[in-house]
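Worked example 2:
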Amino acid sequence: MSSDLYRAGHGARSFRHGHTHNLRANSQRGVARRGAYICGAELPLFGNRPEAMVRCACAELTCIVNGPWVVPSSGVTPDAFPQAVEWACWEGASGFLAGRAVWRMVIGHPDVEAALQKDAVVLLQRLCDVVDETVGG
């Protein structure tokens, strides 16, 4: 491993959801065993499954990582991301990375400042509230 930091599970999207999750979990286990620090891991099952399945997969990830980890928003819609972050945080995630789910609606918008205020800031505040209520509470 050339770096002590690794974003586990990245690039496995082409497999079907069940296989993708297994591939990511195996990848994360292998990386963790080698002593790399996993700082962010795509949300198990992209948060697109029943709550119990997603939370179970997040709990498994917490055991694999054995340290703080955050949820990037890739693969999760802006509307679904706050709920997915909540589930992940209840199962051990430390927070989120403000990625595609937050900025997608701003990029290319004719009025970037208005889009930031109307969409991105509102979503970021909601996400921060979720983390404060789960991790900080």
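Residues 59 and 122 are 28 Å apart (CA to CA). The chain has one domain: 5-134.
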